[in-house]
Amino acid sequence: MRYLTAGESHGPELTAIVEGVPAGLKISEKHINADLKRRQSGYGRGARQSIEADAVRVTSGVRFGKTLGSPVTLVVENKDWETWSDRMAVFGPVPSALKREVTPRPGHADLVGAIKVGTEDCRDVLERASARSTASLVAVASIAREFLADVGVEVFSYVSSIGDACLNEDDPLLSAPDYKPLDIEMSEVRCPDAEATELMKHAIDDAAAKGESLGGTFRVVALGLIPGLGGYSQPDSRLTSQIGAALFGIPAIKGVEFGLGFRSAQLRGSRVHDVIGLDRGRGFTRASNNAGGLEGGMTTGLPLIVTCAMKPIPTLACALGTVDLDTLEPAEASRERGDVCAVPAAAVVAEAQVAFVLANAYLEKFGCDDMRGIRAAIKSYRQRIRTMSK
Ligand code: EPS
């Protein structure tokens, strides 16, 4: 599967085309919209979220709720377009009172993007560089999630810190797979612990009062993966590189760790690697999951556990110093309406990115034309694995 997304933050709509979706996969509009809603939620989101009520319109590739094998087109409308249709008009004259964006925000794509494309209005860049585009990624990945659910894989995420407010976890590699998605979604910051949720909300309130923004960390967990997805023979066949690239494709993601991650660099080998055993009934086992579910670029069959770090959003009420691109004098960066914290939302986007890579890994290994063929290929592979450990 591959996809292309398009759409400006305040343009008429976001559009995505997904190609290579196998035929015969059940798709539910309700599921896609539920994911879109999760992405819009989270304590610390800005006023834009009360304007938008993201909902998908599927305009190709699905018939009677099942995929046809042809490209699937997904459209999410921007309700805010109504108030931006003059400033973002596709055709027509430039409004005489148009306010150009000439005070680029440090940390956003504003300045470098304007230099790159040679515009005198940073809006030409920031409209597409906006995290609004992540709504498309979530819609696209909802298809991947339907596929993964069909083959017995569940992907969820939770927030582990916001600013310096942290979820207390003795060993996240042990505890993460046991968190319940329902408990996570009950929390306004998508954190499975009530006390940590309050600490995180307090940190967001404090940042908001000071005109600040906050980043944080979150983990993505995938359960039910078959061993041997991905590859070891080329750099780009490794799931580690594919998942890493997908996660770094989300705006503001600054770090990605698999399993023990950076901590494994401080420990001796015997403390890091997951000892192999054999259970005659269950097959190969591991004494731990420090690798976070990937070994040699392939799934081990244990839970995939990836941690991401997100930087604070660059749109600040306490504007930072910049240079006015018209006067070339020092100025205050523009104060685009923004979110104080979007870590809970970014975690949902990260789930989406991981889900898309994992679904593709299944398709690569088990064929990609139709669901019946794929299910049969998975069944026969499972049989072979069982025989191997007997
Ligand atoms: C964003 C700025 C805000 C965010 C937006 C990302 O939008 P606006 O400029 O309309 O207030 O709310 O995120 C979304 C709209 C979204 O759906 O995630 C930015 O500058 O990146």
Question: Which SSEs are present, and which pair or pack?
Answer:
Layout: E1 2-6, E2 13-19, H1 29-40, H2 48-51, E3 56-60, E4 62-63, E5 66-67, E6 72-77, H3 81-84, H4 110-117, H5 123-129, H6 134-150, E7 154-162, E8 165-166, H7 172-175, H8 181-186, H9 194-209, E9 216-223, H10 239-248, E10 253-258, H11 269-272, E11 276-279, E12 283-286, E13 294-295, E14 298-299, E15 304-310, E16 321-323, E17 330-332, H12 343-366, H13 371-388
Antiparallel strand pairs: 1-2, 2-6, 3-6, 4-5, 7-8, 7-9, 9-15, 10-15, 11-12, 13-14, 16-17
Helix pairs in contact: 1-6, 1-12, 4-5, 6-12, 10-12
The structure holds ligand EPS.
Ligand EPS is lined by residues 9, 46, 48, 52, 80, 130-132, 135, 315, 336-339.
Q: How would you explain this protein's 3D organization?
A:
With 390 residues, the protein is α+β, with helices and mostly antiparallel strands. It is 34% helix and 20% strand. It has helices at residues 29-40, 48-51, 81-84, 110-117, 123-129, 134-150, 172-175, 181-186, 194-209, 239-248, 269-272, 343-366, 371-388; strands at 2-6, 13-19, 56-60, 62-63, 66-67, 72-77, 154-162, 165-166, 216-223, 253-258, 276-279, 283-286, 294-295, 298-299, 304-310, 321-323, 330-332. The strands form six sheets. A five-stranded antiparallel β-sheet has the order 8-7-9-15-10. A four-stranded antiparallel β-sheet has the order 1-2-6-3, with helices on one face. Strands 4-5 form a two-stranded antiparallel sheet. Strand 16 (321-323) and strand 17 (330-332) form a beta hairpin. Helix 1 runs antiparallel to helix 12 (343-366), helix 4 (110-117) crosses helix 5 (123-129) and helix 10 (239-248) runs antiparallel to helix 12 (343-366). The longest helix is centred in the last third of the chain and has 24 residues, at 343-366. It binds ligand EPS. Ligand EPS binds at residues 9, 46, 48, 52, 80, 130-132, 135, 315, 336-339. Residues 9, 46, 48, 52, 80, 130-132, 135, 315, 336-339 line the site of ligand EPS.
